[in-house]
């Protein structure tokens, strides 16, 4: 099992407050090659964990004596780290199994936000929008969060598509779901859609519930990613696991870069089939929330909101002049407000 062996090895780790060697080896247990299999342990696997705990306990004693160190971390320890350390000190494989079942292996045990680019990367400090950042789309945000809370509570919920003009706050609304209690989010890079099976197989094993965030989707209807995502959304026998909910944003109502023209009446059935196949993807999202473009009044309201006060004197004209080249949107309103401060 890989674990830090010198003090310099500790510097690359995200350690909590407290004696570093114990928490470093606790993290090594959460990263162990058998950590995922321990979610459904067999007697032989329990024996293997017991042997590793015995060996790692002796190693911990040696490291503490050879390299006595004070705290290197600044954050409080996570319950998964505390539980893994207790299991290590007690050399109790069943206690470690319970820790992994409750919190999952690393990185899912310690973090709530992730990026998937073919591999899962934890985001220790995700940049979340302010709770009051979204202006003018209160009904859409309420519907989105009500559906998300149903999902997080284990009740039936709908895969969600946020559709609308650029800069209206679709991504802001989606990322804000990470503020909900118990929420975890994996942002998927569009180029890796064809590799989602591996990610979903991993997430299905875990005790958490995940929002799978697909931002700014714009797909080629002839491309592999389009057909892969369509099959994933109820079009295959397997489908997403019950602990995963898809949340996608797009500037295109049907998620595709080109629809083509409607076939003429009497045209070959294949032409109609091709069109319906293209339209079918967005229809597989059970909840579609539309974010219409800003108008002048909403734009000025948003500028004042981000300023935290009413517009004064010539500020309204300056804000409108700023929007001449870019148009009205929430993003432009934030930029205008920053210039008026």
UniProtKB/TrEMBL annotation:
Matches recorded under Gene3D superfamilies: P-loop containing nucleotide triphosphate hydrolases
The protein's name: AAA+ ATPase domain-containing protein
Residues of the AAA+ ATPase domain: 156-270
Organism of provenance: Thermus brockianus
InterPro entries: AAA+_ATPase, DUF815, P-loop_NTPase
């Amino acid at each position: 099992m890989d674990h830090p062996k010198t003090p310099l090895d500790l510097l690359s780790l995200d350690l909590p407050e407290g004696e570093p060697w114990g928490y470093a080896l606790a993290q090594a247990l959460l990263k162990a090659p058998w950590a995922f299999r321990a979610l459904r342990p067999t007697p032989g696997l329990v024996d293997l964990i017991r042997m590793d705990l015995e060996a790692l306990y002796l190693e911990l004693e040696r490291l503490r004596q050879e390299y006595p160190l004070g705290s290197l971390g600044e954050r409080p320890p996570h319950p998964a780290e505390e539980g893994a350390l207790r299991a290590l000190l007690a050399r109790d494989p069943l206690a470690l199994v319970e820790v992994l079942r409750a919190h999952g292996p690393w990185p899912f045990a310690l973090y709530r936000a992730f990026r998937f680019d073919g591999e899962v990367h934890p985001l220790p400090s995700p940049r979340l929008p302010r709770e009051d950042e979204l202006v003018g789309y209160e009904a859409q945000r309420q519907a989105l969060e009500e559906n998300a809370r149903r999902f997080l509570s284990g009740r039936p919920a709908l895969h969600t598509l946020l559709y609308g003009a650029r800069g209206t706050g679709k991504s802001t609304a989606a990322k804000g779901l990470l503020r909900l209690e118990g929420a975890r989010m994996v942002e998927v890079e569009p180029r890796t859609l064809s590799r989602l099976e591996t990610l979903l197989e991993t997430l299905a094993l875990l005790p958490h519930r995940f929002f799978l965030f697909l931002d700014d989707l714009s797909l080629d209807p002839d491309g592999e990613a389009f057909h892969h995502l369509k099959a994933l959304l109820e079009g295959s026998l397997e489908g997403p696991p019950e602990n995963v909910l898809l949340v996608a944003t797009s500037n295109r109502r049907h998620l595709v870069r080109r629809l083509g023209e409607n076939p003429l009446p009497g045209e070959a059935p294949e032409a109609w089939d091709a069109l319906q196949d293209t339209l079918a993807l967005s229809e597989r999202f059970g909840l579609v929330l539309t974010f219409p473009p800003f108008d002048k009044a909403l734009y000025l309201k948003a500028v004042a909101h981000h300023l935290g006060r009413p517009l004064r004197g010539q500020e309204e004209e300056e804000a409108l002049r700023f929007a001449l080249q870019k148009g009205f949107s929430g993003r432009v309103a934030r930029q205008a407000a920053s210039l008026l401060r």
